[in-house]
Amino acid sequence: MLRRALLGLSRSDKIKNLVVRLPVTSGVVARFVAGETVEDVVSATRRLVGAGLAVTIDHLGEDTLDRTQAERVTAAYLELLSRLDESALTRSAEVSLKLSAVGRALSQDGEKIALDNARRICQAADAAKTTVTLDMEDHTTTDSTLAVLSELRADFPDTGAVLQAYLHRTEADCRDLSGAGSRVRLCKGAYKEPESVAFQEPAEVDKSYVRCLKVLMAGRGYPMVATHDPRLIPIAQDLARRNRRMLDSWELQMLYGIRPTEQQRLATQGHTVRVYVPYGTDWYGYLVRRLAERPANLTFFARSLLSK
Ligand code: FDA
């Protein structure tokens, strides 16, 4: 209930104007966001990789409404990839991309512009010997994201997808994307979705997550298990064992700032643990989704606002 209410409330301009005045260095923002600049994220990546973790980096931004902004975000990704390459970090660090950040929502030819920009980012990632994973946004964009994925995979077969266990359709999407060479990041899903398309009860979402995991683990692709859930992680480990998967044929993923001790513990056991690291000035939507996931974080958030 609270999660849905918060996701709804986050659309209020009044609330947004209050929150975006927080500096990125304030406690609650800094916990979930690595900083605003490419230097900030490269240094966070260096630290995580030095601690034995892998990384996927998201340049924050999801409401791109004009071409100049789409171009700016694309340029930011190209610069990021070049900096990761220069810093010899591309063996352990890839990038995550929201198609809405590179133009999909533009009224004219949005999907084509997003595909062209994503292709340029995939080219740069390929040249730097790393990969791109397409984030999944709300359900109205799922078909479009999967269509763009399929175009990109024709030239860049390593391009990854994100599937959201809360959608009724996802078990079937997992089946479609469980073939050799397919990289699928399975998460629960972070948007406010209607009953007609998504499970509403956390227990139903968890059951769907397990069904999807079974499909991915039994398939020939590379499952990326993106969850902090202490019950789902051992289930993933068990399914990997039953499907005789080696540790290098799947990985665990968590968000920057969430359960860092557990990230480290799993990496020490020999798992690839990839941390999703967001950076940039446009952190509002991302922060609200993190707060909505865990009401306990709200106290921390309120303290940051009061001490401003
Ligand atoms: P759940 O929310 O049930 O949490 C399980 C436990 O994890 C909690 O009990 C708590 O211990 C801990 N925890 C979870 N969230 C926390 C928080 N914010 N603060 C502190 N502790 C917390 N979503 C999407 O719609 N599209 C996408 O492209 C992506 N991409 C993505 C990439 C990666 C690498 C991850 C890990 C997640 C995403 N997500 C996402 C977000 C995802 O859908 C989901 O909202 C969050 O991962 C939280 O779900 P959990 O599986 O952790 O379970």
- Secondary-structure element pattern, one letter each: HHHHEHEHEHEHEHEHEHEHH
Number of contiguous helices: 13
Q: List how many beta strands DSSP finds.
A: 8
The percent range for helix content is: 40-55%
CATH fold-level assignment: TIM Barrel
The tally of domains stands at 1
How are strands sequenced across the largest beta sheet?
A: 1-2-3-4-5-6-7-8
CATH architecture: Alpha-Beta Barrel
Q: Which structural class should the secondary elements be placed in?
A: alpha/beta
**The first-level CATH class name:** Alpha Beta
Strand portion, in percent?
5-15%
Q: Which stretches are poorly predicted, pLDDT < 50 over at least 5 residues?
A: none
What's the rounded overall pLDDT mean?
A: 92
Radius of gyration: 18 Å
Can you tell me the overall shape? globular
The termini sit apart by 29 Å
